[in-house]
Structures are given as structure tokens and as C-alpha cells.
Fold this sequence. Notes:
- This protein is of the alpha/beta class.
- The protein has helices spanning 15-34, 41-66, 77-86, 89-118, 125-145, 147-161, 183-191, 235-243, 260-273, 300-316; strands at 172-177, 208-214, 217-223, 247-254, 278-282.
- Strand 2 and strand 3 (217-223) form a beta hairpin.
- Helix 3 runs antiparallel to helix 8 (235-243).
- The protein is rod-shaped.
- The model has no long low-confidence stretch (mean pLDDT 95).
- Bound molecules: guanosine-5'-triphosphate (GTP) and magnesium ion.
- Guanosine-5'-triphosphate binds next to helix 7.
Amino acid sequence: MSSFQPNRVNIPPPPDRLLENAFAAARRKQEELRQRSYKTPLSRGKTLAKDTLKAFTRSLTQQLHQAVPPLPSALPPRYQSIIRILTNPDEVERAARRVQHAIPIFQRITRAIRRSMSSPRVQTRSEVDRLKRHAIGRLTSLYNDIRDAISILRDYARLLHDLPFLPEEYQIILIMGLPNTGKTTLYNQLTQSEAETAAYAFTTQRLNTAFLTLPTGRVILVDTPGLLPRREKNEIERLAEALIPHARLIILVQDPAQEAEAHQIIEAHIREKTSAPLVHYVQEKPGMPVLWQPEGIRSPDELKETLSRLLHEDHDA
Ligand SMILES: Nc1nc2c(ncn2[C@@H]2O[C@H](COP(=O)(O)OP(=O)(O)OP(=O)(O)O)[C@@H](O)[C@H]2O)c(=O)[nH]1
Ligand SMILES: [Mg+2]
């Protein structure tokens, strides 16, 4: 099944580097052409100028083609809503159009100047050189016009590249809750992963994702950073929240050592964004003060059974 794979997204080189690559391709072509023999110095000059120009433009336009990643509007729905949180999709689409429009212009300029070089009216090496300088001037100035667009596409490609793998054909189960409640510990227990856990808040700074195999089939389990009932959210927290409407189920991890009220605020916050079932899980931490006695599932095995049952029920409905 074909699905979007973030880590396959090509990250284009920075604008300076891209241009350097094109000049390098031209130099390689020139070296190659210098080995050959020519009838006259003029025909040598013309061939060298024409073909290195062609090599330059070919390298440039090939790289520009590759610099356009899958656009926001072409992404599967999950990724579209994530991308909206992280960047401005309109700006990305505009940048892509500018680059795509520039490609045939590079090719037209190159063709026209190569044609001029071939003309019998061009009779001296210095005329050939003048045309060549003219070509490089036009092409680099056009290139400078799209530098910003290339940078925007590069940043966007990097963003895409680092997103978690969330194929549409698998349902998503999110693990959410206050910081330091034991979310990642649970994630590791369920998936035999080794994501980082620690005894302080905000340990998880990315979305950990893994396939979880349940009797009903495979699902994607996503471990999120701790949520706090506050207004300012960082990028990764906003990303986790963007996934809430896409989750089939949410596991809310509760810690008896943290205030009941804080848990309830988080729960209300999640409820605002989805009507998906919410499963309460309690991470007992022996030796820690107990501030309340949350209701909920207390073992990973029981949790798996409950998840399967809930997924199955919906399947039957
Ligand atoms: N004793 C005991 N400690 C636990 C248990 N579960 C989690 N902890 C401890 O609680 C602390 C936090 O665990 P994490 O799994 O990193 O918590 P988290 O919710 O992922 O934290 P953030 O990613 O920072 O939001 C760690 O020190 C864990 O060792 C448990 O079942 N028993
Ligand atoms: Mg964590």
C-alpha cells in the first residue's frame, strides 16, 4: 500500500549549495570537452560555451525539480492538519509555484543564448565570451529571485522529513496526560520500546510512535509530551493536540501523586477536541505520596484487553 513516508522526503540543499552544484556540473562538462579536438578555435569556443551552459542549466533545473517536496494540499488528511499547525501551507504552495514557474524560464533563456552562440554572425571568441557572461548573469539573477522560495521549501521539507510515520490505514491511539505521569513508561511497556523516561517533567520532546499489535490488528500508538493546563504551548505540544481529532482512542495516564484537579482540567481539554473514547490508566508509583485515588486500569495487559474490546465494539457497530 502506498502511503506517505516522511523520512523519504528529500531535503533540498541550501540555495548557495544548489547553485554551487550547478557550477560544478558545468566545470565537469568543461573539463570533459577540453579533451576533445575541434576544427577551429572558434568552434571549440562555441561548443565549450554552449555545452557547459547546457550542463549548468540541466543541473540547476533538476535540482529545482527535486527541491519541491509533496505539497501540503497533496498530503493525507492527518499530515495536512499537522502541517497547518507547524507552517503556513499557503506560503509553501506559493514558494513551490514560484520555483516551478522559474524552471522553464531557465530553460528558455539557455536555449535562446545557445542559439545566439551558434549563429554564424558570432565570429570571435570574445563575442562568445560576452554571450556566456550574459547567460550567467541572467540565470543567476533569476536564481536570486527564487532563493527565498527555495529556502521556504527547504524548511518545509525538513519539517515533513521529521514528522512521525502515521499511515492512514492504521488507527491512532494517543497516550496523553500531565507531565511526568508515566506516559512514556506505559508506551515502552506496551510496545517494548526504549523511549527516554525520567523523573522530571517534559522529558518527552518529540512524538514517540510505534505499532502496537492487538488481537484486533495493528494500531499506531503515539506517546505525547505532557500537557499542562496553560495557554502557551510549544510546537511539539501543538502537534500532539493536532492529532487529538485523528485519534481513535485516547489513553489518559493519571498519577495518584499529582492533584486530581489538574488531571480533570486536562481531561476536559481533550474532551473538547474529540468524542473518541477516553481510557483512564493509573500509573501507580510505589513510595510516592498519594493525593487521590483515580479510577482506571492499572496494568498494561488489562489495558490491551480494554483497547481491543473498544476497537472491536466499534467495528461491530
Ligand atoms: N515506581 C514507579 N515509577 C514509575 C512508574 N511509571 C512511571 N514511573 C516513574 O515516573 C517518572 C516519569 O515517567 P515517564 O514515563 O518519563 O513520564 P511521562 O509522563 O512520559 O513524562 P513526560 O514525558 O515528561 O510528560 C519516571 O521516573 C518513571 O520511572 C511505575 O509504574 N512505578
Ligand atoms: Mg514522556
